[in-house]
Amino acid sequence: MKMIRTAALLAAGAFTLIAAPAQAGKTFDAVKAKGFVQCGISTGIPGFSIIDSKGEASGLDVDLCKAIAITMFNDASKIKLTPLSTQQRFTALQSGEIDVLTRNTTQTLTRDTTLGLMGVGVNFYDSQGVMVKKDLGVKSAKELNGATICVQPGTTTELNLTDWFRSNKLEFKPVVIDKFDEVIRTFASGRCDALTTDKSGLASVRTTMEKPDEYEILPENFSKEPLGPMVRQGDEQWFNVIRWTLNAMIEAEEYGITSKNVDEMTKSPNPNIQRILGTSPGMGKNLGVDEKWAYNIIKTLGNYGENFARNVGADSALKLERGLNNTWHNGGILYAMPVR
């Protein structure tokens, strides 16, 4: 009898722990107090984060920052963007200069275990590749033995490049440059035979070239590059805000909820849709935000698919295929954890 009673008490305690909403953490409280979200973005990658001549920022990573601000404040304008190089990005997050790194960053075990940071989720599945001028006359990266290759330091790109060439018993000469815009200029000037970065980045760079048709992205994939936001360790409440902001955008697409039909969808009898849109309350309370947080994101920015199309997909200059970044039931690997 004593064992049964103990088990019952443990079960009741477990239920209490599950049912209790998460406590606000240091970053969550600080963001609420200052009234905006400070996001680290790249120094300029069209389609992901770019600031135009009018000071207007756009891109997939910028929209994720806006979505976080909507979750916290129901206002996409409550953001401050800090452009960061690959060398600066982790230090800026570690020091508290930024609240979240939405800059295109590969999630790896080393980064999760040695920097005091952690990846939150994937908002773009990519792979690393190489771009060359067509007049170089090569059709495969295996033809680049002895080539000079432009690459940014302190990146998985630099490490993957070395690994790939070594495994294929080939040699190369790295031209290491910190700022991405300088990397592009160096490559365009002919100082490098090739440029390497994520393939989405290569497609982005090609659109900025004076004669885009003169450049070719070679077929080899050097690596897996799951790109996504990162936060500091030790603040689960803030981690959850970023994680579920991203999940809600993906799951909205899974259920066919868009910026155009979101108001009609609030009348849906589907309990999953009711939880996402806040017509069945509780999810917002658990996160410490408004019950309509996901509705507000979708109404303002759209679901993940709408964000993809606008920034890097069919409605953008890049025209990237969805590929792996399609939802799981449409042939991709995007699979959101359920908002429930």
Largest sheet: 5 strands, mixed
Helical residue percent band: 40-55%
Approximately how much beta-strand content do the residues carry? 15-25%
- Using the 3D structure, state the CATH architecture of the largest domain: 3-Layer(aba) Sandwich
Mean pLDDT: 92
CATH superfamily of the largest domain: Periplasmic binding protein-like II
Question: Roughly how many Å is the radius of gyration?
Answer: 22 Å
Class per helix and strand makeup: alpha/beta
**N-end to C-end Cα span:** 35 Å
What quaternary form is this?
single chain
- Give the overall shape: globular
Keywords: Signal, Transport
Domain Solute-binding protein family 3/N-terminal: 36-265
Signal peptide: 1-24
Protein name: Amino acid ABC transporter substrate-binding protein (PAAT family)
Outline the structure in words.
- With 340 residues, this protein is of the alpha/beta class.
- The chain folds into two domains: 26-123 and 229-325, Periplasmic binding protein-like II (D-Maltodextrin-Binding Protein, domain 2); 126-225, Periplasmic binding protein-like II (D-Maltodextrin-Binding Protein, domain 2, 3-Layer(aba) Sandwich).
- 40% of the residues lie in helices and 15% in strands.
- The strands form five sheets. The chain has a five-stranded mixed sheet, with helices on both faces. The protein has a three-stranded parallel sheet with strand order 4-1-5. Strands 2-3 form a two-stranded antiparallel ribbon.
- It is globular, with a radius of gyration of 22 Å.
